[in-house]
Amino acid sequence: MGIPVVDFSKVDGKERANTLALIDRHCQEWGFFQLINHGISEELLDRVKRVATECYKLEREAGFKNSKPVQLLNELVRKKSDEIVENVDWEDVFLLSDENDEEWPSKTPGFKETMKEYRTELKKLGHKVMEIMDENLGLSKGYIKNAFDGGEENTAFFGTKNFLFVELAAFHAFAANPSRYEYVMFDFDLDV
Predict the structure, then answer these.
(1) Per-residue pLDDT tens digits for 6-24
(2) Angle CA(73)–CA(78)–CA(83) in degrees, nearest 5?
């Protein structure tokens, strides 16, 4: 069984009632769903992926490769150790907000402009999803949004995640003996 998918373009059409019921069911049964046809352009999504990947390579990759979790995993793989690795997220994360504007990556051309445009589109989509959930729960419009941000517009955070294994052998080591690695998250997608 795959991740539940919702065609968000149907929210404003003849199939609104069915689409809202589908969202409600996925929230109750799964706790999440994937949106397709959500209104964020493919061109913008491609630019986001491009600048985030470039930013990681230019500004973040070396630090991630030299991080303690990655060094630990690589050492265990080289030693063929039976030691258990616990509670480690193998990811590089940084937050992008107006409050930390000076901390935004600066070496990647177009990064800041692209991510700000993407954030604007995500906020619009997020507000629309929250309004759908308000409606499904019989709440007044804006109730969930207000619960999250208290009426303030810029309280939500926004960031990027990059997942990487320095040595592909590390993944193969995990696959061969997953019991050695407790609470390890493996994900090769770029989430922004």
Answers:
(1) 999 999 999 999 999 999 9
(2) 55
